[in-house]
Amino acid sequence: METDARKGRRQRLGEMMVQQGVITINQLKDALKVLAQSGGRLGSLLVELGYTDIDTLLRLLGAQLDVPTVDLYQITIEPSVLALLPFGKMKKYEVLPLTAGEKNVTVAMVNPGNLAAISDLEFILGRPVHTLLAPSLQIAAAIKTIEDRGCRLDEPVVGKALQSIRKRAAVEADMPDIRQLFKRLVDENASDLLLAAGVPPSLKKDNEVRRLTTSLMTPQQIKACAWELMSAQQREEFERNREIDFAYTLPDVGRFRLNIYKQRNSISLAARHIIEIIPTMGELGLPAWIADVALKTQGLILVTGPVGHGKTTTLAALVDIVNTRRKCNIITIEDPVEYLHKHKSSNVNQREVGIDTDSFHEGLRHIFRQAPDVIVIGEMRDPESFAIALQAADTGHLVMSTLHSNSATSAVERIIDIFPAHQQQQLRVQFAENFLLIFNQRLVPMKEGEGRILAYEKLANTYRVRSLIREGKSHQIRSLFQQSTEDFSSIELSLARLCIEGQITPEAGVRFCENPAYFNDLVERGLSR
Fold first, then answer.
1. Please, what are the domains in the chain?
2. Angle (nearest 5°) at CA 412 between 407 and 417
3. How far apart are CA 300 and CA 261, in angstroms?
4. For a disulfide at 230, which of 234, 264, 396, 409, Cβ 3.0-4.6 Å?
5. Sign of CA dihedral 311, 357, 416, 414
């Protein structure tokens, strides 16, 4: 009687659980999607998805149906009691005998309101039946246990063993091969593999999520995949922090950047394919002039943009330019190390957060003792890292890093705003004097066929840009320097050029620009303004 979809009672239990705050409406929707595909009973499915537990389910079902309940995980059924009923009847009626007395037999049933089944059971047993409600997943685990023994009833059914059997069965049922999923990620030239409970495995390609035509994944399956990929030490770190980043190499397939994290009482996983051969500037569509900036010996270069738009790859290409053309000592701090740089004209020392150093901040604290000429920071995350990076740029080092920001100009304010108000003016002056370039980029879907093309915005250090930053007027740069100049070239100009060349659609240009009216005006005038 546990909310069977065929009897139209599924929604009632779900609504009760949402109203009482046991599950969220989104969790209910996820479960109903799984139920529509796989069938079964909602209450047991919610337990298997990790959205609730057996105790809560039994409490709600007992209250809803006004029947006593039993947790089969907490009891043992002796062989003498099991033998009272033929196994075929147990399976047919989803029932287990629990205890037997002279006057009645107590049984656990999924549907204790099935009067026809109870009448048949009483005829077989020769005495009245007292029914207790048990979740279908527990009855199913017990039935499977007996089946695995050849349907013999001469051994006890132990509740604790049922629990482990059910967990193992849930994991193994339609268990995806994580290595095959990695291979498919590479074969389909997608950027990311995404695993989340309640949906099939998904690939992210051209910035769109595409679900595979497989069964929906359960929390247990995703946890098994995650545990397979992590070392014992990484599992401990994950349990402690509830998320972890690391790199993973699968021989003959590729190298991947993984993030495993907890959400809604389950585990999700994101894996990004790392192309180990560092792309050239031409392959990435980077402008030729950026190489000259990368070969400067002092200052700060920032590659900015949204998540998933190639910042790390651009940074790797810039490091490769330095590695190829200069004879210097390069120190990187990354989380995790993605592209592996070989020593060319330079020495490249790559340090991974969590393995070679505790954090970006800790790695940077000691970096000056490592005789760096070029310092590469995988991502700017905290005021301490920014402060050390600016100090390094101010004392004769080239510093390169990435930062999440929507535009080159907003990157300036984001950096300044993370510091306390009393430090901000000093930081404006220091930043204005030491930055070389802020390169903001987007990967825009191409008009013809699959793939994305680079659009970019540049903000270079000139006298008038320094003055505006020092005076706290960096927000005026966009309006003052609309035409392409040596110090500023807007994302709208880059997108308009791609649109006029027929490489992207006007709709894509509008979606990725900061000023749609200006972009449309440039396209209409053919960049004549």
1. 1-66 (no CATH), 67-173 (3.30.300.160), 178-274 (3.30.450.90), 281-492 (3.40.50.300)
2. 120
3. 32
4. 234
5. positive
